[in-house]
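How a chain folds remains the central question behind the approach discussed here. For one protein, we set the task of working out the structure tokens from the amino acid sequence alone. The sequence in question and its structure tokens are set out directly beneath this paragraph.

_____
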Amino acid sequence: MILRKDLERGRAAYEQWGQAARHALADGGEAGANGGNGGNGESGASTSVAYRASLDPEVPRSTQAMAVRYSLHLLERKAPGPGVEVRVAPWGAVKILDGPASDPHNLTPPDVIELEPNVWLRLACGITTWSEERQAGHISAVGERDDLSELLPL
């Protein structure tokens, strides 16, 4: 997932993404958020669920990748186990929580959660909640353990 030598760089990238997201929220979209209110600074836009659930701060692709890898590392340490696979394509996947291990034929656990990188980072940083992202249709989850709200934000 992330190499030990990259942990500090990952932590810095995770913090950079979170700061860029919070800055975009404070500016109501004028500081580089793609989507949302289009950067027009409308009053209250920075706190609306729809705006927060579309937040996509402009950071280098390599920063976003490292932030995803580092935050998945944090999740894996917080809730180790083989029961649920959390996938954030294209940059990583981890298995967490106790439960049945992967099927020996395809190596996929019975519970799989898939998220886009910005959705995952919004959740990990506390910009949005699990229920907000789920209601927006941004979470694909299969299995009985399809809710990570107790583990987030990191």
